[in-house]
Amino acid sequence: MNATKQILIAEDQTDIRDLLALNLRGAGYGVSETRDGPSALALQTEVGHDLLVLDLMMPGLDGLEVCKTLRSRGDHTPILMLTAKSTELDRVLGLELGADDYLTKPFSIAELLARVKALLRRSELLRAAQAAQSQAADAGAPLVNGELEIQPVKRVARVRGVTLDFTALEFDLLLYFAQHPGHVFSRGQLLNAVWGYTHDGYEHTVTTHINRLRAKLEADPLHPDFILTVRGAGYKMRERPGH
Question: 4-aspartylphosphate (modified residue): where (predicted)?
Answer without folding.
Answer: 55
